[in-house]
Amino acid sequence: MLKTLIDNWGMLRVMSHFMKSVGGAKGFKLFSQYDKYYTAEAVKAALACGASCERPGNDFQRLLFDIARRRLGRCPPPEVGRPREPAPALMREYFEMVEDVVVSKACELAAKPVRDVIPEEEARALYQALVSADIYKAFRVSLYLGTGAARWGRVLLIGAGTQEPLDFLKACELAEAKCEVAAMEVDEVIFRDLARLAERRGFKAYLGWDSLGEGQFDGAVAQNVLHWASDPLDVLVRARRHASRLLVSQVVIEGSGIGFVLTYVLGAVRFLSWREVEALARQAGWRLERRYAKYPDYIAVYTRREQRR
Asked: What is the CATH number assigned to the segment(s) 139-304?
């Protein structure tokens, strides 16, 4: 517990707005209880279909059982009862998706390839619903306020989707800061919705890195994009070409829970540790300015390291 506190000392400062939204320390405790409960339920469902903790048969099983050992201490898991208190409204949508997508389908996911259970188009729609859930909206607003990103000026949101720009604008409003937001998407389907949103809300939308041209920004934000990217190093290198400062917020494998399994089921390309994220950032030419948290959400601000002549 002490090590976790030391590793994540800056989280309380960054997440003060989020803590209020979830009901303070009581809300965080309840979130952890539900996370453990649904982790145990998913593991039990997979084991009931013939999966083995000792010999996992596919990537879903390996990830699920590894997280069970981290969160619950062992696999098979101990008995975990459903929390008596209902989840706060802010969390309800998130845990409903965990129950529908992971727990109820754990048997199928343990036996078949993920895309045979949840087709790509369905996974895409579910992920868009996930990142638009109230709990993630509150998290992002708190993140942009707590790290000061809302006061950076001209900011590029990388892999923004359609919800992140709204959350960033909300943070700017709460900070009473003048923001110039640009959102970049590489997915053409998502970009069509993003472009319509940008026209209505008065920010710029770009499709792909090449569309940015030589544009420069005061800062860039990579919010949970590295584990979706085919080449996360390339994302960080390209971000460095366009911004002098970078906020990285990335769910990592250390300390992660059932939500990490949900992300994998919905299409995340890879699992990253916080050390891997930092190594990639250094390799891309970024210098660590301030690290707020190591896990399960790695949060840090970087500044561009100028190349030697």
From this structure: 3.40.50.150
DSSP secondary structure string for all residues of the chain = -HHHHHHTTTHHHHTHHHHHHHTHHHHHHHHHHHHHHHHHHHHHHHHHTT--SSS--SHHHHHHHHHHHHHHSSSSPPP-PPPSSPPPHHHHHHHHHIIIIIITTHHHHHHS-HHHHS-HHHHHHHHHHHHTSHHHHHHHHHHHHHTSGGGSSEEEEET-TTTHHHHHHHHHHHHT---EEEEEES-HHHHHHHHHHHHHHT-EEEESGGGGTT--BSEEEEES-TTT-S-HHHHHHHHHHHBSEEEEEEE-STT--HHHHHHHHTT------HHHHHHHHHHTTEEEEEEEE-SSEEEEEEEEPPPP-
For the stretch 80-136, pLDDT in tens is 999 999 988 899 999 999 999 999 999 999 999 999 999 999 998 999 899 999 999
Indicate the pTM of the whole model. 0.92
Domain ranges of the chain: 2-131, 139-304
